[in-house]
Every structure is written in C-alpha cells, then in structure tokens.
Amino acid sequence: MKILFSTVLVLLSLGSQPLESQEQIDSDRATEAGWVSLFDGKSFDGWRGYAQETMPSGWTIDEGAMCACDPGPGMDIVSIDTYTSFVFEVEWKVNNGSNSGIMWHVDETAGAYPWMTGPEYQILDDDAFDDGALGVNSAASNYDVQAPWLDASTMAGDWQTARIVVAGNHIEHWLNGIKVLEYEKGSEDWKVRVAGSKWANMASYASTTSGHIAFQGDHGIVWFKNLRIREWGGQSKVPE
C-alpha cells in the first residue's frame, strides 16, 4: 500500500510541475523570501529541553539531522523563540515502531509536558500500529482529536515532510506535499472532538495563542532536518 501510494505521489508530481535538481531545490529553499532556518545541521543553537536550560543529552546530531537517539523521560525539546501565526516545515524520519510529535503554542508554565498546552501533529510509523488503519493517532493526525483524511505516509526509515499552517485559529496539517487535515480551533466541531479525546478534562490543552514549537523525544528514535518557519503579520489569512 505504501509503495503504491508513493508511486502515485511521484506521478502526480511529474504531471504538475517541472523537474528540479536537488541543488536547485536547496537553493530555492535557502533564498525564498520570509523563510528562516531553525536548524543549521551542526548545532542545537535555538533549542533546549522543555523546562530546561540546555539540551537533553539523549539528543545528538546525526548526519546533519537532530536525533532523539536515546529516547526517554525528559527528552522533549522546544524552540527558544516563540511563534504565533506561521508556516512550519520539517523533514522527519522514525525507526520501526517509533512515534513522536510536533507541538506549537507550547507554554512551559502549564504543566510537565508540551502536550498539556500545544496541539500535536503526530509523527508515527503507521504500519506498526492498529494494523496501519487510519485514525486519530495516525501520522499527521491532530493527535487523539482528529484523523487525517487520507494516508499520505510512507515507510518507517523514509524521510517524510511535514508542513503545519497556523493562521490564528485555522490549522492545516500537510504530509508529503498533501493537505491531509484542517480545522478551526475553538469551533463547535473542534470542541466536540476534544470532548471525546484524552484532553476532555484538561483545561490547559490548546488554550494558548502563542508559544514554543516542541518535538517529543521519549517514544522512540526520531530524526528531524531541514527545519524552517515563515511568520506573517495577519492572524487569520493563510499565506500563499
């Protein structure tokens, strides 16, 4: 199923845009207006442990990627800077059976974990859970709240691309170039879904409108690279 879907993605890509060399793609990413890199591939400048002053020792830099190579308690990390409305892109990879998450608007004063405030874009080896069935815990889901519309993930060990759009209360989850989920935080539909999730009785969940970006590092080995973010002044208009 994953191989077939990957083939479809390639064919769609070939039919919709001209081919570019990797060198040209890298150049475009580096010079595109408004984008800021959040990781240089060499140091953890701009990052630290959640509610910590330094990076947890279990995170290392592995061939230009940040890696939670020794996952365990106290391994969640956050950006030093905080963000409100933005587009965030990152490439991620997991080992077989591993999972992680990307959170935003994280407030370190609200509790012991980033997910106590920040909504979570799920990172997962889908094939290792629930027989690969699509659900609220699948890759690119709004974790435990809303399932993606379709399975755009590939195999564990593959580099995959996440894109998260936060425009005020409007949220979009993209995976491998496909928008797989969008929702309005605070809407009636969102409230019903949260009420049926593990966050039902957690008042701090998704209660913030600005905060840190966080990566979960305690649920298996995970890698992140090519992190970049673009902010804009408007709070509700999704950028082109």
What does this structure look like?
The protein has three helices and 13 strands. The protein is of the alpha+beta class and 240 residues long. The protein has a single domain (20-231), classed as Exo-inulinase, domain 1 (Jelly Rolls, Sandwich), CATH 2.60.120.560. Strands 1, 3, 4, 6, 9, 10, 11 and 13 form an eight-stranded antiparallel sheet that branches. The chain has a five-stranded antiparallel sheet with strand order 2-5-12-7-8, with no helix packed on it. A hairpin with a 2-residue loop joins β10 and β11 (178-184).
How would you sum up this structure in a few lines?
The chain is α+β, with helices and mostly antiparallel strands. The chain has helices at 2-16, 22-31, 188-195; strands spanning 36-37, 47-49, 59-62, 65-68, 77-79, 86-94, 99-106, 120-124, 160-167, 170-175, 178-184, 212-215, 222-231.
